[in-house]
Each structure stands twice: as structure tokens, then as C-alpha cells.
């Protein structure tokens, strides 16, 4: 039987069998034209910055192929130079697009590399970005420190309120940028409702003036939510977090419509934030195939821990999408669904300790985290998230320190707020450590 015939029967079989995405993420696309390694079970690491071109003619065709997806996207790639494309990151991209249900994916050196790339492609001088009050600290820093130089205005508003969104869209609005759940307070933005509003508005806009919705899906991971199926135009991830999963490699990705692939590739080539192939390989080999397994464990633990915190007398409030008492529980329940359609509220928790006043609450929170840093076995005081280990941090002084104290409330942050990223430990062991930390304050 010819390879082509075998391939088509095999692919048809996959389609007909309707395997769960839990299984698909282990095998991924499986058949790829990005690299011929049919006798490896695990994709081998390719580490070569430059590639043999055989002939001037073949080299010229490689350059023709690059960023010409429409014409040459189905051909086996002629690799030229790592910054343009190479096997490991190209295979990772195929699989990330697949799991997020997007047409195409382009990887970057970090989450920030991906965010600046998608916004670099979608905006130009004179445009406006409408965004949510609460965002990852470095995204705020990107908007506040650099975008004024390019004359791109960033308008921070409460995007959980659709009326507010409506009232703040102008003729210059080109992008609505958001995180849901937001880092770190877990605000949830109703994506189908937002998407319906933007669809209406775009009816009166041209291709040049239409509004794009860009969602940073890092907190949820594609296991818990696929924003492209809820009306978003683009998804970005920090692969450093839940998708990478083990805290060993940095990376980022933009996933979206195929017609943007060439522009995003060109941006990556020229601005240069290219993922290291060894990192792409690690995320492809360890991170993505274990995503569902890790998320299931982390969600089950997060739910137990959120409930424990919620009933603790020293805790003021707990934000966790899986708690019935959470302000955005109903929206979360509608859009945070795993591959089988079950509620998947994620592995991130934000909570605050009680205090006689905000200063006291902050002091107790700080003492609590210092106790954890010194004495807890199952929790580590560190930034980042989506790790195999449970990580605890203080956003106001760490990940979101770009926000001055008098602006914390405006950004949806609490001076004493604690962020927890649940790892793979047994929940009861984390609870023991939390209990002891509460006894210390
Ligand atoms: C960490 C993070 C980023 C940035 O990712 P890096 O890989 O550190 O550049 C962006 N968005 C969110 C929500 C994050 O948590």
C-alpha cells in the first residue's frame, strides 16, 4: 500500500472514531509534513540554526515559501534558518492550533513576545485598544511604557459590564484585549456576549476598521476554555505556564485565522522573539500531552482548597470560578468547559485575609506568605503559575508591582490579595500547610 493511501485511511479512521481531545493531545496531529521522522515514537530534537539548501533553486523556493501560506502552505517546508521556521516549533504550532481549535498558530520566545506580536500586527499609530482593568503586570507595562511612543491609546475599563464596553468603543477602537479569567483576581468576561456585540458593530466597519477580540487564555489553558469557539478572533498564551506545565521552558503562542499567519511570521522574523527549539520540543513532548491529566488533578485540588479558604474565619473573600459564591460563577460555568463539556474552573485562586483595616489585611497577608516561604513543604513563594508545584505569591508587590498602591483598587487588586497556583500535590497536604500558615497569623 502506498504511504499516501495508508495516510488517508488512517486519517479517516481518526475522524470517524471521534476520540476524545484528552487522547488527541497525546498524539497531536501525529502525521506532519514538517519533518520526516516516521520511525521515531517521540519527535526527535532538532537543533540547527541553519539548514542545507542543496541547490540555489531549492534555496530560492524556500524563501518564496516563507510567509506565503496561501500559495505554499501545504508543501513540505524547506527550512532555511531557525528564526523563519524549524521542525520543533513548527510541529508544536500545528498541535497548539489543533488543541485551541484555531486555524493557525505561531510560537514566540515568551508570552510577552506573543502578546506584543499579535498587537503589533493588528494595530498602528492612531489606533485604540480597549482593555480590561485587570491584566497581567507586564501587559500593563507594555501598554503604559511603550504604546504612547507609537501613539496607540489604551483604554482600561471594566469589560465585565457590556454597557461599559459599548460606551467605550470609538471609531478608532481596533482591538478589545482581555484575560478571562483575569490575572490575578479571576474576573470573568462573558465572551459570547462580547462577541455578539462586536459582530454587530463590525457590520458597519470595513476590513481596515473592524474590531478584533484578543484573549489571553493563559490562566484557563485550552483544557478549560477555547475562546476561539466562543467568538474571540485570536488567543495568546504564555506557554511558560500551564501548557509547558513543569516550569522548565519559556514560550508563547498566537493562535488565530490563517490569513494572519504570514503577517505574524513576518513580525516574528523581523522583531526576533523566536522560541528556542529545545523549549518547543519540551513543550511538545512533555507539556501538551500531559495537559489534560495535570489540569484534572489541579482543578480537583483547587476546588477543595477554594472551599476550605472560603469557610476559613481568617479569610475575607475567595475568588475561584468554581465557587457558587463567586461573583462570576454563572458566566464561568457557561464558558469554562473541558474537552468533554464539563465545568473546568481552572487551577488559580485569589483570596484576601481579613484585617481591622486594609493596612492590617495587607500585613496579615504578608505574614502568611512569609510563613509559607519559610515553613511550607507543598507551597513555594514564587511567581509564575501552572507548575507541577503549588506556587503562592503577592501580586501587589510582585507580578503586578507596576501598579502603584493608590491605583490597586482601580485595577481590581487588593493590597493584601494572595494568588495561589495549585500544583500536582495531594490536596490534603496543601491544606495541612495552609492550616499551619493561618495559625501563624
Ligand atoms: C506570565 C503571563 C504572561 C507573560 O508570559 P511570559 O511567558 O512570562 O512572557 C502573559 N499573560 C499572563 C496572563 C501571564 O500569566
Short description, anyone?
40% of the residues lie in helices and 13% in strands. With 441 residues, it is α/β, with parallel strands linked by helices. The mean pLDDT is 95.
Which helices and strands appear, and what pairs or packs with what?
Blueprint: H1 3-17, H2 21-27, H3 56-65, H4 69-72, H5 87-100, E1 104-108, H6 111-122, E2 128-132, H7 137-146, E3 153-157, H8 162-168, E4 173-179, H9 191-202, E5 212-216, H10 221-224, E6 234-238, E7 252-256, H11 261-271, H12 277-287, H13 291-310, E8 315-319, H14 329-335, E9 348-353, H15 358-375, E10 379-381, E11 390-393, E12 418-421, H16 427-439
Parallel strand pairs: 2-3, 2-4, 4-5, 5-6, 10-11
Antiparallel strand pairs: 1-7, 6-7, 8-9, 9-12, 11-12
The structure holds pyridoxal-5'-phosphate.
Structural overview:
The protein is α/β, with parallel strands linked by helices and 441 residues long. The protein has two domains: 99-289, Type I PLP-dependent aspartate aminotransferase-like (Major domain) (Aspartate Aminotransferase, domain 2, 3-Layer(aba) Sandwich); 291-439, Aspartate Aminotransferase, domain 1 (Alpha-Beta Complex). 40% of the residues lie in helices and 13% in strands. It has 16 helices and twelve strands. It has helices at residues 3-17, 21-27, 56-65, 69-72, 87-100, 111-122, 137-146, 162-168, 191-202, 221-224, 261-271, 277-287, 291-310, 329-335, 358-375, 427-439; strands at 104-108, 128-132, 153-157, 173-179, 212-216, 234-238, 252-256, 315-319, 348-353, 379-381, 390-393, 418-421. The strands form two sheets. The chain has a seven-stranded mixed beta sheet with strand order 1-7-6-5-4-2-3, with helices on both faces. Strands 8-9-12-11-10 form a five-stranded mixed beta sheet. α7 (137-146) links the parallel β2 (128-132) and β3 (153-157). α5 crosses α12 (277-287), α6 (111-122) crosses α11 (261-271) and α13 (291-310) packs parallel to α16. The longest helix has 20 residues, at 291-310. It is globular and about 75 Å long. The model has no long low-confidence stretch (mean pLDDT 95). Pyridoxal-5'-phosphate is lined by residues 110-112, 136, 138, 179, 183, 216, 218-219, 238, 240-241, 250, 252.
Amino acid at each position: 500500500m502506498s504511504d499516501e493511501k495508508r495516510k488517508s485511511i488512517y486519517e479517516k479512521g481518526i475522524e470517524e472514531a471521534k476520540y476524545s481531545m484528552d487522547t488527541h493531545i497525546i498524539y497531536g496531529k501525529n502525521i506532519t509534513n514538517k519533518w520526516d521522522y516516521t520511525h521515531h515514537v517521540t519527535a526527535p530534537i532538532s537543533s540547527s540554526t541553519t539548514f542545507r539548501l542543496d541547490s540555489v533553486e531549492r534555496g530560492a523556493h524556500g524563501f518564496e515559501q516563507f510567509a506565503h501560506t496561501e500559495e505554499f502552505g501545504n508543501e513540505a517546508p524547506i527550512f532555511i534558518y531557525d528564526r523563519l521556521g524549524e521542525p520543533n516549533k513548527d510541529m508544536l504550532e500545528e498541535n497548539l492550533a489543533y488543541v485551541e481549535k484555531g486555524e493557525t498558530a505561531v510560537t514566540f520566545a515568551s508570552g510577552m513576545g506573543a502578546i506584543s506580536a499579535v498587537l503589533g500586527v493588528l494595530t498602528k499609530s492612531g489606533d485604540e485598544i480597549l482593555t480590561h482593568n485587570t491584566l497581567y503586570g507586564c501587559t500593563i507595562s507594555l501598554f503604559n511604557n511603550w504604546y504612547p511612543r507609537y501613539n496607540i491609546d489604551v483604554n482600561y475599563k471594566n469589560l465585565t459590564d457590556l454597557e461599559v464596553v459599548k460606551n467605550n468603543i470609538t471609531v478608532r477602537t481596533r482591538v478589545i484585549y482581555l484575560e478571562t479569567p483575569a490575572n490575578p483576581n479571576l474576573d470573568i468576561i462573558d465572551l459570547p456576549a462580547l462577541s455578539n456585540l462586536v459582530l454587530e458593530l463590525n457590520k458597519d466597519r470595513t476590513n481596515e476598521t473592524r474590531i478584533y477580540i484578543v484573549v489571553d487564555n493563559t490562566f484557563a489553558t485550552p483544557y478549560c476554555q477555547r475562546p476561539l469557539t466562543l467568538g474571540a478572533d485570536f488567543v495568546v498564551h504564555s506557554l511558560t505556564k500551564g501548557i509547558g506545565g513543569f516550569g522548565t521552558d519559556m514560550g508563547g503562542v498566537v493562535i488565530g485565522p490563517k490569513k494572519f499567519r504570514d503577517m505574524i511570521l513576518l513580525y516574528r522574523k523581523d522583531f526576533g522573539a523566536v522560541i528556542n527549539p529545545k523549549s518547543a520540543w519540551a513543550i511538545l513532548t512533555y507539556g501538551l500531552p500531559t495537559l489534560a491529566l495535570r489540569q484534572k488533578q489541579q482543578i480537583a485540588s483547587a476546588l477543595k482548597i477554594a472551599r476550605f479558604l472560603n469557610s476559613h474565619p481568617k479569610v475575607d473573600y475567595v475568588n475561584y470560578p468554581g465557587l457558587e459564591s463567586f461573583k462570576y460563577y454563572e458566566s464561568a460555568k457557561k464558558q469554562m468547559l473541558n474537552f468533554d463539556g464539563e465545568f473546568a474552573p481552572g487551577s488559580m485562586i485569589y483570596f484576601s485575609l481579613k484585617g481591622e483595616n486594609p493596612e492590617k489585611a495587607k500585613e496579615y497577608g504578608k505574614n502568611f506568605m512569609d510563613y509559607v516561604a519559610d515553613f511550607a513543604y507543598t507551597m513555594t513563594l514564587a511567581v509564575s503559575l501552572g507548575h507541577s508545584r503549588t506556587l503562592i505569591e503577592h501580586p501587589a508587590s510582585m507580578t503586578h508591582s507596576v501598579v502603584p498602591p493608590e491605583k490597586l483598587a482601580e485595577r481590581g487588586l487588593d493590597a493584601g490579595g494572595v494568588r495561589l497556583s495549585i500544583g500536582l500535590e495531594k490536596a490534603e497536604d496543601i491544606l495541612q500547610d495552609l492550616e499551619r500558615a493561618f495559625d501563624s497569623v
